[in-house]
Amino acid sequence: AAARSSGGFSMVPRGTVLGLGVAAGAAALSGLAIRSAYRAELDRAEARIAAGSTTIPTRSGTMEYAERGTGRPILMIHGTGGGFDQGLHFAAPLVTAGYRVIAPSRFGYLRSEFPANAGTAAQADAFVDLLDALGIERLPVAGGSAGGLPAIEFAIRHPDRCSALVAIVPATFAPDRPTYAPMSPIQERAMRAMLGSDFLFWAALQLMRDQMIGTMLATDPALVHAASLDDQARVDEILRNILPVSRRQRGLMNDAMLAANPARQKLERIVAPTLAISLEDDRFGTYDAARYMVETIPGARMVGFPTGGHVWVGHDAELFAEVDGFLNTVP
């Protein structure tokens, strides 16, 4: 079985932090050409997140969000390393299927503020303020990876606003999930420094792509190498879209705390129709979390795939067809 990691969309692996430093040191020796290539990619990343989103005030401060599509609304909650851009990227098949995808940036990501209370419940409550600002009374919510935590909490705390719950590779509680020791102060300072450097992250993408896929994306690199060119490009885009990582640092650190050892949530209180989706070879162990959800939430349904890793390689169209089919059963 694939070794499980404490990192990635759920949190950043500590071994990868050291690797980022090694990769950056090697890249720095390559001189001006490397710097020029880095600057060009960072400029593209900054331009990508500069357009297409807006902000609203919430009880927890400013929240950024973006929308695509004009059909039935669905709230898409991104995972670690994301922002509104990751939410839109993941949910693009739903836009094609005729949905209006609303994708917020969670606390500490991009232009969303990081409040004193940045916990899962506070995130869920802020989504209510977003819906109020948009004039939406009730809609389905989908959460990917660490975004599954506030999506689930939204369904628990605000049943009158949640018409359905979709948990995709949920980085949430499972009884048999391994626990991890808290970071030491030195480890935390090192992680903050690395996540605050766009150059270190970019250098790791150039020199350690397979390691990044295996740790940050919790997916077997060999699976990606054997995938279609479209799937390979999609995985590459997921990684590159984490840039600028410095604009996501506080959100990443918060997810590292919340998703490393996720708290047990009151799943039995969820009344919304629920779909949980995961893959058996996800190195974050989200298959166990999805299975626990369907065992605990009344009437919940699960879709599982044997392979595909945390970013469901080879199953993107199939996965969102399942989501679409499920949502079509919800009034």
Summarize the entry for a quick read.
The protein has 331 residues and is α/β, with parallel strands linked by helices. The protein contains 14 helices and 8 strands. The chain is globular and about 60 Å long.
Oligomer classification:
single chain
Q: In whole angstroms, how far apart are the ends?
A: 40 Å
Structural class: alpha/beta
Order of helices and strands: HHEEEHHEHEHEHHHHHHEHEH
Strand content: 5-15%
Shape summary: globular
Give the averaged pLDDT, no decimals: 91
Helix content range of the residues, please?
Answer: 40-55%
User: How do the strands line up in the largest sheet?
Assistant: 1-2-4-3-5-6-7-8
Unreliable residue runs:
1-11
Sketch the major β-sheet. 8 strands, mixed
Total count of strands: 8
Radius of gyration: 19 Å
How many alpha or pi helices? 14
Features:
alpha/beta; 331 residues; globular; single chain; 8-stranded mixed beta sheet
Any overview of this molecule?
- There is one protein chain.
- The chain is α/β, with parallel strands linked by helices and 331 residues long.
- It is built from 14 helices and 8 strands.
- The chain has an 8-stranded mixed beta sheet, with helices on both faces.
- α13 links the parallel β7 (274-279) and β8.
- The N and C termini lie far apart (40 Å).
Topology:
Blueprint: H1 14-28, H2 32-50, E1 54-58, E2 61-68, E3 72-77, H3 84-90, H4 92-96, E4 99-104, H5 120-134, E5 139-144, H6 148-157, E6 162-168, H7 185-195, H8 198-207, H9 209-215, H10 221-225, H11 229-240, H12 249-260, E7 274-279, H13 286-296, E8 301-305, H14 316-327
Parallel strand pairs: 3-4, 3-5, 5-6, 6-7, 7-8
Antiparallel strand pairs: 1-2, 2-4
